[in-house]
Write a structure and sequence with these properties.
The complex is a heterodimer of chains A (251) and B (489). By secondary structure, chain A is of the alpha/beta class. Chain A contains 13 helices and eight strands. Chain A starts with a strand and ends in an 8-residue tail after the last helix. Chain B has two domains: 309 residues, Rossmann fold (3-Layer(aba) Sandwich); 52 residues, no CATH class. Classes of the chains: A alpha/beta (251), B alpha/beta (489).
Chain lengths: 251, 489
C-alpha cells in the first residue's frame, strides 16, 4: 500500500505539528508514508471565493503530485471535500466551456484516492484503538465539511473514546458551523465572529480543557477568538491527540 | 393602507437603497433583542422539523421524488404552462402572462379597478411581495389588507418581512401587543383596551380586526403553492383559515403565481403535501388546504384571474447550475437551520427572500449587478445545513459558489481581490517559492503582530488574534527527518 500525506497548505505553513503528528501516528501503525514535495494547496480558497479558473492549475498540480499512490491521507476534512466534491465540478465546467476532458480525468483519477485521516484509520486500516494516551478533558467540534459533505459521523468520536486517559465531553450544538467559512470570516466578519462566539461559549460551558477538531482552519478561527478572550481553553487537532502516547506526549 | 417609503422593490424582490449584507449584518448582529427573538424562534422550529421529518421512514425517497418532479416539470415548463392555461380557461378562469413585476402590477391594478373596488384582502404570497404589489395598488388608490397574522403584524408595524413563512419572526409578543394597541385603530377595528400579550389574546384581536375585512371584501389577491396542469387546479396551503376566507368569500379572485409553481398532476401533490408542511411548520398536515378550479356558479368567486409571473425565472432556468433554485417550495427550512440567518436576521438580506434560498434566488431573479445582490452569494459560510434540510434537495452551497463566480467576474469591486487570488495561485503553483515565503514568515515570527489594521486581516483581527507562525514549516521538518523516494520537483 503506497500512502502519501497531503499536509495541506494551512498545516504546512501554520500547523506543522498536525502534519508531524499524522506522520508519527501512521508510522506507529506500520504505514509507510511519503510526502511528495510538489504538493501545495487544494485550491479551496480560490474556488469558494469565486475564482474557479484560478483553481485549475492546482487541480492539475494535485493530480501530478499524488499520481501513483493508493491513498492520499489528509488531516483536513474540508480539503478532502474540496477534492471529492468540487474537482469533478471544475472538470465538468471546463468541458462545458469547450476546454476538453483533461481536468475531468485529473479529478476522476485523484478524488477516490484522497481520504480524510479518520476515514483512513477507521475504514482503510480498520482500527479504532490506536494506543494513544492523552490525560485531558476534551470536547469535539465536527467541522461542517467533515460532517455534512464527507459524512464522517462517529469516526472521530470512536477514535477519541478509545484514547486512554481522555475524558470526552459532548459539545452542545456541535453540528452548528463555527463561523470560519474561509474568506467568509473576512468578508462577513461580524456574523462570523457572532457564530464563533457562540461556539466557544458552548465549548467553555462543557468544562473541557481542549476543544478538538479535525480541521485546523476552523480551529485557527476558534483559537484566535479564544486567545482574544483570554480564555484558558485551547484548541487541538485530533491527529495530535491520536499521536500522543505514554512514552511520547503530543508533539 | 400606508406602508413605509423604503419598500420600493426592484425586479428580483430586493428593496431599493439597502446596504450590502455585511454592513446590514454589522448592525443586526449587535441587536441583542433581535438575536434573542431569532434564536428562540429558529431553534424551536428547527427541532420540531427534525422530529416531524424523522417520523417518516421514506423521507429521503420523498425528497428525491420532489426533486425529480420539479426538475422534470422545469425541463418541459412551456408544455405544462400551456396545458395549465388551457385547463384554467376551460374552467371559466382567465390567464394573464406577466414578463416582469411592472407588467404584473399593471394587470392586477386594472383588474381591481374594473371591479370598482378600492380595497382588496390578501392571502400571504411571496410572489406579490416580490413584485411590490401592495405599493403599486396603493399608488393607484387601492388599499391592500394582509390577512395572514404575521403579515398583518408586519403591515400594521410599517415594517418589513424578515422570514418567508413567519415574516414577523423578529418580533416578540410584547412588541406585537404594542403594534396592535397603537396601530389597529388606524386601519379598522381597534384592539381591545385590555389586550394582553398572551398568544390567545393577540390571535383573538387579529381575528376580530380581520373578520370585518373578510366580510366586506369584494376582491381577494392570492398566490399559490402549486398549480396542477392536468386540471388547471390551484392549491393554497395555510394554517390560519384566513386564506380559506379570502379564497371563497369575495366575488373576484386574482392569483399571482410564479411560473415554476406548476406541477403536472394530482399524483405529484401527494409528494409535496407531505414535504411542505413537515419542512415549514413541522406539521404532519397543514390545517387548511384550499383547492379550486376556475369558477363555479353559485359557489365561491364569480371571477378568477391567474397572473403567471416570470420576473427573472426563465433567465434563471437558462442557468444549468442555478436553475435548481426554481425547485424551491418556499418552506423556510433553510432559514430556520441557517447559522448566518439566525445571527444576521432576515432584514440584512435586503429583500423579500431572506436566508440561504434568498441568497441564491434574489441574485438570479435580479442579476448580480446591484450592491445587495452582489453581496448575497457571500452571505454564507457554506456549512451546508440548508442543503441537508431542503425538501427538494437544492444544493444551495453549490449555487452560492457558482454565483460568487459571476460576481467575481463581473464586479469591478473585486479587481484587487482577483489580483490577490492570482498571486496566491502563482505562489501555490511554485512550491519552491512557497517554501521560501513560509521560511521567511517563520524566521520573522517574533515580529508578527496579533492584529493588523488593513485589508482582509483587519476583518479577521477585529475579533480574533492572528495565528502564530511556527519555527519552521512542515516541509522543512520532513526534509530534515525523511527522504522521499517519490518526491518530485
Amino acid at each position: 500500500m503506497r500512502v502519501a500525506l497531503f499536509a495541506t497548505c494551512v498545516n504546512d505553513a501554520l500547523y506543522p505539528n498536525t502534519a508531524i503528528a499524522t506522520v508519527r501516528l501512521l508510522e506507529r501503525l506500520g504505514v509507510r508514508v511519503d510526502f511528495p514535495a510538489a504538493q501545495t494547496c487544494c485550491g479551496q480558497p480560490q474556488y469558494n471565493t469565486g475564482y474557479r479558473r484560478l483553481t485549475e492549475p492546482l487541480v492539475n498540480r494535485m493530480a501530478r503530485a499524488f499520481a501513483g499512490y493508493d491513498y492520499v491521507v489528509t488531516p483536513s476534512g474540508s480539503c478532502v471535500a474540496m477534492v471529492r466534491e468540487n474537482y469533478p465540478r471544475i472538470g465538468a465546467k471546463a468541458r462545458a466551456e469547450g476546454r476538453g476532458d483533461a481536468l475531468t480525468h485529473a479529478a476522476d483519477e485523484l478524488a477516490p484516492r484522497v481520504v480524510e485521516l479518520t476515514e483512513f484509520l477507521v475504514d482503510v486500516l480498520g482500527v479504532v484503538d490506536i494506543g494513544a494516551y492523552y490525560p485531558h478533558t476534551v470536547t469535539y467540534h465536527p467541522s461542517c465539511h467533515g460532517l455534512r459533505v464527507l459524512g464522517l459521523g462517529e469516526r472521530p468520536l470512536r477514535l477519541l473514546r478509545a484514547v486512554r486517559g481522555l475524558r470526552l465531553v459532548e459539545l452542545p450544538g456541535a453540528e452548528e458551523c463555527c463561523g470560519f467559512g474561509g474568506t467568509f470570516a473576512v468578508k462577513n466578519p461580524d456574523v462570523s465572529a457572532a457564530m464563533g462566539a457562540d461556539k466557544i461559549a458552548h465549548a467553555a460551558a462543557t468544562g473541557a480543557e481542549l476543544l478538538c477538531g479535525a480541521d485546523n482552519s476552523c480551529l485557527m478561527h476558534l483559537d484566535g477568538m479564544l486567545r482574544r478572550a483570554d480564555s484558558p481553553l485551547r484548541t487541538v487537532h485530533i491527529a495530535e491527540i491520536l499521536a500522543s502516547t505514554e512514552q511520547e506526549a503530543a508533539v | 393602507m400606508s406602508t413605509p417609503g423604503a419598500l420600493k422593490t426592484l425586479s428580483g424582490g430586493v428593496y431599493l437603497g439597502m446596504p450590502a449584507f455585511p454592513e446590514a449584518a454589522r448592525t443586526s448582529t449587535h441587536d441583542a433583542r433581535l438575536r434573542a427573538n431569532l434564536r428562540r424562534a429558529t431553534h424551536t422550529i428547527r427541532a420540531r422539523r427534525a422530529d416531524a421529518v424523522a417520523e417518516l421512514e421514506d423521507w429521503p425517497r420523498l425528497r428525491e421524488a420532489g426533486k425529480r418532479i420539479k426538475d422534470q416539470t422545469l425541463r418541459h415548463l412551456d408544455r405544462y404552462l400551456l396545458q395549465l392555461e388551457e385547463k384554467v380557461t376551460a374552467a371559466g378562469g382567465t390567464v394573464h402572462w406577466a414578463a416582469d413585476a411592472a407588467e404584473a402590477n399593471r394587470i392586477v391594478t386594472s383588474l381591481v379597478r374594473a371591479t370598482g373596488s378600492t380595497e382588496v384582502v390578501k392571502v400571504k404570497s411571496m410572489a406579490t411581495q416580490e413584485i411590490g404589489l401592495n405599493e403599486a395598488l396603493e399608488a393607484a388608490g387601492i388599499a391592500a389588507y394582509e390577512t395572514d397574522l404575521a403579515e398583518l403584524i408586519v403591515q400594521l408595524g410599517q415594517d418589513r418581512p424578515s422570514h418567508i413563512l413567519v415574516p414577523a419572526i423578529h418580533r416578540n409578543r410584547r412588541e406585537i401587543r404594542e403594534i396592535f394597541r397603537t396601530q389597529m385603530a388606524r386601519y379598522g377595528r381597534p384592539a381591545p383596551s385590555d389586550l394582553t400579550d398572551s398568544p390567545a389574546d393577540l390571535a383573538e384581536a387579529a381575528r376580530v380586526h380581520l373578520r370585518e375585512k373578510f366580510l366586506r371584501a369584494k376582491v381577494a389577491v392570492s398566490g399559490a403553492n402549486f398549480m396542477v396542469a392536468e386540471t388547471g387546479t390551484m392549491v393554497v396551503v395555510e394554517s390560519e383559515g384566513n386564506g380559506r376566507m379570502c379564497l371563497t368569500l369575495p366575488e373576484t379572485l386574482i392569483s399571482v403565481v410564479g411560473i415554476e409553481k406548476v406541477v403536472p398532476s394530482w399524483r405529484d401533490l401527494e409528494v409535496f403535501l407531505q414535504l411542505l408542511p413537515r419542512s415549514s411548520t413541522a406539521e404532519r398536515m397543514n390545517p387548511y388546504t384550499t383547492m379550486w378550479t376556475g369558477t363555479h356558479r353559485g359557489d365561491g368567486p364569480k371571477e378568477f384571474h391567474l397572473v403567471l409571473l416570470d420576473n427573472g425565472r426563465t433567465a434563471t432556468l437558462a442557468d444549468e447550475v442555478g436553475r435548481q433554485a426554481l425547485r424551491c417550495i418556499r418552506c423556510s427550512a433553510c432559514l430556520n437551520v441557517c447559522p448566518v440567518y439566525e445571527r444576521a436576521g432576515g432584514h440584512a438580506y435586503g429583500g423579500v427572500y431572506p436566508g440561504p434560498i434568498g441568497a441564491i434566488l434574489a441574485p438570479q431573479l435580479a442579476g448580480v449587478g446591484g450592491t445587495v445582490e452582489a453581496s448575497l452569494p457571500f452571505a454564507s459560510s457554506l456549512c451546508g445545513a440548508c442543503y441537508e434540510v431542503c425538501p427538494v434537495a437544492i444544493d444551495i452551497p453549490e449555487v452560492l459558489v457558482h454565483l460568487r463566480e459571476q460576481v467575481a467576474e463581473h464586479n469591478s469591486g473585486h479587481r484587487l481581490e482577483r489580483a490577490g487570488m492570482r498571486g496566491a495561485t502563482w505562489l501555490l503553483d511554485h512550491p519552491g517559492a512557497l517554501a521560501a515565503v513560509e521560511r521567511a514568515a517563520a524566521k520573522t515570527r517574533a515580529l508578527h503582530p496579533r492584529t493588523l489594521p488593513l485589508g482582509p486581516a483587519k476583518g479577521w483581527s477585529e475579533s480574533r488574534d492572528l495565528p502564530d507562525f511556527p519555527a519552521r514549516p512542515f516541509r522543512d521538518w520532513w526534509k530534515a527527518n525523511h527522504t522521499s523516494e517519490m518526491s518530485g520537483e
